[in-house]
Write a structure and sequence with these properties.
This protein has 240 residues and is of the alpha/beta class. The chain is built from 8 helices and 9 strands. The chain is 24% helix and 20% strand. The two termini are 33 Å apart. InterPro entries: AB_hydrolase_fold.
């Protein structure tokens, strides 16, 4: 991976060797990391998965600001220059899932897959959420206090979230619209991406989310591997 941007707040890396022949650009966003207060900067995630679909780009929010400390226009411009008109996918879990949705509009993403995304960690928006207070308290200016308004009407979204009440506070705020498929996986919490990976279900889920016909439902296709329900009404006409 070659460094595209590396400053106090952000690191962006690109698999430049894959770029010439890639059909699309797959942008992955790192999550907060493991542990109550992870040390160091977040590590890249989903690089191997992203490489299956195109040239991988890794975006790391070093200070865990949920995008509030990032120069979103500069990051977007650099990635779109590399894409040269090719489709862009975005992918992430937890904070990375939040960022995958946040960046879907400026990157004009064709598809976005987000696991365990928070709707908000801003105290004035989600006052009952305290799991990420250590980082939220260090965010100065809240340019992106929530995902309100950041699900556009063109990107095809697949979101995956756990069913426990701590997660329900977030996915219950996601908009029900034709271009979004929201899945709630029963009995799971915030670590659902790791559990799906450990169970061997993640490759099939990503294949379906990124490559299947948009009208195809993951539950009907049997790719989730766990009991789940879909929030968006079925029977909607595909978008695009």
């Amino acid at each position: 991976m070659d460094i595209l941007i590396d400053d106090d707040g952000c690191r962006v890396e690109i698999d430049r060797a894959a770029l010439p022949t890639a059909e699309r650009i797959v942008v992955t966003f790192a999550g907060v990391g493991r542990g109550r207060i992870p040390k160091g900067i977040p590590v890249p995630q989903f690089i191997g998965s992203a490489s299956r679909y195109g040239a991988a780009v890794s975006v790391i929010d070093k200070n865990r600001t949920w995008g509030n400390g990032l120069n979103v226009p500069a990051i977007t411009s650099g990635i779109l220059d590399l894409a040269e008109g090719r489709p862009v996918f975005t992918l992430g879990t937890s904070m990375g899932g939040f960022l995958a949705i946040l960046f879907s509009t400026p990157l004009r993403a064709e598809r976005t897959v987000s696991a365990g995304a928070q709707y908000s960690v801003c105290p004035s928006v989600m006052s009952s959420e305290h799991r990420w207070d250590y980082f939220a308290r260090r965010i100065g200016e809240w340019w992106y206090p929530s995902l309100n308004g950041y699900f556009n009407l063109a990107t095809k979204y697949v979101t995956l979230n756990g069913s426990i009440w701590q997660e329900r506070r977030h996915w219950s705020q996601f908009p029900l619209q034709e271009n979004a498929q929201h899945y709630v996986i029963e009995g799971m919490g915030h670590n659902l991406a790791a559990r799906l990976k450990d169970a061997g279900a993640l490759p099939g889920i990503l294949d379906h989310a990124f490559l299947a016909d948009w009208g195809s439902d993951m539950i009907d296709a049997g790719v989730l591997g766990f009991p789940a329900r879909r929030l968006a009404p079925k029977g909607l006409h595909p978008v695009g």
